[in-house]
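Hi support team,

I've been running sequence recovery on a batch of backbones for a student project. Most finish fine, but this one hangs at about 90% for roughly twenty minutes before it completes. I'm not sure whether the input is malformed or the queue is just slow. I've pasted the structure tokens below so you can try to reproduce it. Let me know if you need the job ID as well.

Thanks,
M.K.
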């Protein structure tokens, strides 16, 4: 039973790290789009979508890593 609990904790930490990396990637892609934008409405919609998704993934990943207790 203890092995199963440790495995679940490790999976949560790995999933949190993956979410954090995806969030950072989304925010970097958003920054690249922001630099290369030419002012059309389509670009602004993409900027808002990638910013929201990047922040959502980043915050969710960080909070999942922080709240998961390390019981090894």
């Amino acid at each position: 039973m203890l092995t199963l609990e440790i495995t679940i904790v490790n999976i949560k930490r790995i999933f949190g790290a993956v979410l954090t990396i995806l969030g950072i990637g989304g925010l970097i892609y958003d920054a690249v789009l922001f630099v290369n934008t030419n002012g059309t409405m389509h670009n602004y919609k993409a900027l808002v979508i990638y910013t929201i998704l990047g922040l959502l993934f980043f915050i969710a990943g960080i909070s999942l890593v922080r709240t998961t207790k390390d019981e090894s």
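--
Follow-up from support: It reproduced on our side and the slowdown came from queue contention, not your input. Residues 20 and 59 are 7 Å apart (CA to CA). No action needed from you.
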